[in-house]
Amino acid sequence: MIDVRGVTVRFGARAALRGASLHAGRGELVGIVGPAAAGKTVLLKTICLLHRPDEGELVVDGIDLIHASPAETARLRSRVGFAFQNLALFDRLDAVENVAFVLKRRGIAPEEARERAAEQLRQVGLAAALEKLPHELSGGMKRRLALARALVSRPEIALFDDPFVGLDPVACARIARLVATSHRTMGGVTLVAAGDPAPLLDVADRVVLMSDGAIEADLPARDFADAAGAVARFLGRTEACA
Fold first, then answer.
1. Within 10 A of 105 (CB to CB), how many other CB atoms are there?
2. What is the pLDDT of residues 36-79, one digit of tens each?
3. What is the signed CA dihedral for 229, 182, 63, 52, rounded to 10 degrees?
4. In what order do the strands lie in the sheet with 63-64?
5. Residue 227 contacts by C-beta under 8 Å, 6 or more apart in sequence?
6. What percent of the chain has pLDDT above 90?
7. Contact between 147 and 124 (Cβ < 8 Å)
8. Tens of pLDDT along 132-187?
9. How far apart are CA 218 and CA 140, in angstroms?
């Protein structure tokens, strides 16, 4: 479904992505791992055209996004769920309204949007927090709220930008299980960026290792588990869940 072919993205004189290539087929859950500023977030945002490539090709579900019409781009974006690392929650909206917002923007009637939002929140274990504001939630609960918002539209392509950041290992494992469960339900493709592969090794099909805007390795998750020591040295073990 996703083909990134030799993509470079520049911000001024700096190349945030350098000739990156990645393929992810339908049904795959792929972890994208690397230290800070490796290019993980830029790669995810480029896939949904929040950043436009300066070089290379970007094809998603057969659509050449670099040359796609605005209508084609809009249709594709409607099939993508994105959970931002900084959460981007609305402080003055309760949990249900934060999630329902996505559906309302897509023309779903308010009552149906709230019902679907509440059901999605129950699926991520937030049944008791439907009317709570973001500041009333713990860090892990906020991450699950962001997860629910990304999934409520039932996307075929789910992109998660480090949903483990700032969480303890138990919370990381819970988020990883939720991501895996939603992935199996959706049946599309899921990409998860993370500072540390540990939460992903039991749920991902593959793990891609990035550094300085380039993809250094792309291996089955079990091979990363076998090479845990080398990966830890590469990452410097400075990220969450280490």
1. 11
2. 999 999 999 999 888 989 999 999 988 898 888 888 888 888 88
3. -60
4. 14-24, 2-11, 55-60, 63-64
5. 219
6. 72
7. yes
8. 999 999 999 999 999 999 999 999 999 999 999 889 999 999 999 999 999 999 98
9. 29
In the structure encoding, which two tokens stand for residue 215, read together? Answer: 């993809």
CB 8 within 8 A of CB 15: yes
What's the pLDDT tens digit per position in 86-116? 888 999 999 999 999 999 999 999 999 999 9
At 196 the pLDDT is 86
Q: How far apart are CA 32 and CA 235, in angstroms?
A: 13
Q: What are phi and psi of 53, to 5 degrees?
A: -60, 145
The pLDDT value recorded for residue 232 is 57
- For the chain, percent helix, then strand, then coil, each to nearest 5? 40, 25, 35
Would the pTM count as exceeding 0.85? yes
Q: What is the dihedral of CA 104, 183, 115, 110, to 10 degrees?
A: 0
Half-sphere exposure of 138 (CA within 13 A, CB side): 9
What is the rounded distance in angstroms from the CA atom of residue 213 to the CA atom of residue 112? 42
Name residue 153's amino acid. Answer: S
